[in-house]
Specification:
The chain has about 270 residues and is an alpha+beta fold. It is built from twelve helices and six strands. The strands form two sheets. A four-stranded mixed sheet has the order 4-3-5-6. A two-stranded antiparallel sheet has the order 1-2. Helix 1 packs antiparallel against helix 6 and helix 3 runs parallel beside helix 6. About 30% of the residues are buried.
Length: about 270
């Protein structure tokens, strides 16, 4: 990616964060305590997690050796690492009144650090090192995913924008990671992903003559790869064994493998036919 494309990506990241900020800024204490679709997570937890991840991101961008040393302390303890990621470098969550300020401060600092880098620079993260372009894309994806939980918790009207393409693409590019993180072998079978964007455009990845495919609405795909909905709760058309296997384990975010949320019918206590 050239500099102009990288700057446009960072502008999209800023816009995604600003959209979520506008949604949570008016909340009172009761609003911050609203449960979200993520079991055990309130809106405050969602925003605090984003703030904590920005803490880690800022350290990776400005002190990569210190970041590696900190992560190494949790190399063999996934539960401790998960707790450390959630709480950030502060070791605790701030009261709800300051969570928003914490997130605002850290995300702005991370944004400044990203703009100080060249697109091809590489930084450490929880897993292999990545380019800052991939890092910024991952920050946008995570902001969107946690923001979607907040949208659902508040009963707000979700808005699909062109920024979804970043989320969709990282969902495609992490196919290998989804397998590797589970100790599975990546099939050699090519899978075509073809999605309908929010403005009527078509986004596609993979060879046009691939023997298997996943097709449908870009929003559905993004919700699946960020594990916000179960594939059964979408209208995605999945053709082929390798495609079905992939969508069952798709995971666009780093860390230990996790499972999709149960289908709506099961969550409602119904038996699927």
């Amino acid at each position: 990616m050239d500099r102009a494309g990288y700057d446009a990506l960072l502008d999209d990241l800023d816009a995604e964060e600003a959209e979520l900020d506008a949604l949570v800024a008016p909340l009172d204490e009761r609003g911050w305590a609203t449960p979200t679709p993520a079991e055990g997570w309130t809106i405050q937890d969602q925003v605090a997690h984003l703030a904590a991840t920005e803490e880690w991101g800022l350290r990776s961008l400005t002190d990569p050796d210190g970041f590696r040393e900190a992560v190494a302390r949790f190399a063999d303890d996934t539960e401790a690492r998960a707790a450390a990621v959630k709480s950030g470098l502060l070791g605790c969550r701030a009261p709800s009144a300051s969570v928003l300020d914490w997130w605002r401060d850290r995300r702005r600092a991370t944004g400044d650090a990203l703009r100080a880098h060249d697109p091809s620079d590489r930084v450490p993260w929880f897993g292999p090192d990545m380019s800052v372009t991939s890092f910024a894309t991952a920050r946008l994806m995570e902001t969107w995913a946690h923001g979607r939980d907040v949208v659902d918790a508040l009963g707000a009207e979700p808005v699909a924008t062109e920024r979804l393409r970043h989320v969709a693409e990282i969902g495609v590019r992490t196919r290998g990671f989804a397998y590797a993180s589970r100790g599975l072998e990546l099939p050699e079978t090519a899978v075509r992903v073809e999605l309908d964007g929010p403005n009527g455009e078509t986004w596609s990845w993979g060879p046009g003559d691939a023997p298997e495919s996943i097709r449908g609405d870009a929003l559905d795909w993004c919700l699946v790869v960020t594990q916000r909905v179960h594939p059964d709760d979408t209208d995605l058309a999945v053709e082929g064994d390798a495609a079905r296997e992939w969508i069952g384990i798709a995971q666009a975010f780093a860390g230990a493998p996790t499972d999709h949320r149960p289908p709506r019918a099961l969550r409602a206590g119904l038996t699927r036919p």
